């Protein structure tokens, strides 16, 4: 599998501690080749992710946001990923309303044993982000500068 060569993009990954973070670790231990654009933020569960984390990341200059957690019915807090799935799907639907291409955000499920699946997910998402133009930075965009003044 090819690795993207050239300029990196800023991609934020919110990964649940119990499954997807383990999956990313398994991919690393297995030495699966993967793009280096992703910056991982470990969270206890996808249920902890407020959709504002996604929106603020994208408005703050991230080119893409990937959320990954335990497969449905495998959440260590029983229902966290069910709540997350509802919130994150709603967030994805609302992104165009704030001027953000919804292809910049994805959510998925990867277990700790799925190192190879993690490699495929992160590679496909990174390629998707590279196919889009870099996201305009708030400071560089006169239209979005007003948001920065609002705090
Ligand atoms: Fe992984 Fe809830 S603990 S999604």
Estimated structural class: alpha/beta
Please tell me the CATH architecture by its name: 3-Layer(aba) Sandwich
Using the alpha-carbon principal axes, give the shape: globular
What about the largest sheet? 4 strands, parallel
Uncertain runs: none
- How do the SSEs run, as a string of H and E? EHEHEHEHH
Question: What amount of the residues lies in strands?
Answer: 15-25%
* Helical coverage, percent range: 25-40%
Structure notes:
This protein has a four-stranded parallel sheet, sandwiched between helices. The chain starts with 10 loop residues before the first strand and ends with a helix. Strand 3, helix 3 and strand 4 form a beta-alpha-beta unit. Helix 1 packs across helix 4. 37% of the residues lie in helices and 15% in strands. It is globular. It is an alpha/beta fold and 151 residues long. The chain is built from five helices and four strands. The longest helix is centred in the last third of the chain and has 16 residues. It has a single domain, classed as Rossmann fold, CATH 3.40.50. FE2/S2 (inorganic) cluster binds next to helix 3.
